[in-house]
Design brief:
With 178 residues, the chain is mainly β. 0% of the residues lie in helices and 70% in strands. It contains no helices and 9 strands.
């Protein structure tokens, strides 16, 4: 593999539609099987959901602080990044997402970097489908297109996406993340 990430965090549902979160992660990029760049990241996030009929509109705001280390060059750097994502999802075989539901999902996410130029650094567009297996597990798959903007030139990156979502929620009113 040429990339890995380990991340997690803690969130709290202030209301059914308002969910702040704090996260932490470690990310690694390899070139020729040698660690090229390591990143340690912390972030604050706020999610505000709006529903209209069967559609769920998720507004996610995130502020990140990252510290980087490039071991081959012995270079340290850091970054502050702001992100906004509008995620739209709709259950296809039910009125809400619950165990046994198939859903469609699409989002657009923009990235702004305060410590580099250009400030508008990235745009991501995703489209896909998912299935909520039971109260704890769901799967999702789709296609992700990412456009990166840089001084050295712009770059398009294409991803096939596959995820296993684990919901740990002891409340009776579950809100599945998709």
């Amino acid at each position: 593999p040429d990339y890995y990430e380990i991340k997690g965090g803690v969130g709290y549902n202030l209301t059914k539609n308002h969910k702040p979160f704090i996260g932490i992660g470690r990310y690694g990029n390899y070139k020729n099987h040698i660690m090229d760049k390591e990143e340690f990241r912390v972030w604050l996030q706020d999610v505000i959901d709006l529903k209209s009929g069967k559609f769920k509109f998720e507004n996610r705001f995130r502020a990140e602080k990252s510290w980087f280390y490039e071991p081959l060059k012995d270079v340290h750097s850091d970054r502050i990044r702001l992100r906004y994502r509008l995620n739209i999802s709709v259950p296809l075989n039910a009125d809400t997402v619950k165990p046994g539901t198939i859903f469609a999902n699409a989002y657009d996410e923009v990235f702004f970097v305060t410590t580099e130029k250009p400030s508008f650094a990235r745009n991501r567009v995703f489209g896909g489908f998912g299935y909520q297996i039971d109260e704890n597990f769901g799967i999702a798959t789709g296609y992700l297109w990412q456009r990166e903007f840089a001084k050295s030139g712009n770059k398009n990156i294409h991803f096939l996406y596959l995820a296993l979502n684990i919901t740990i929620d002891g409340s009776d009113d579950k809100d599945y993340q998709f």
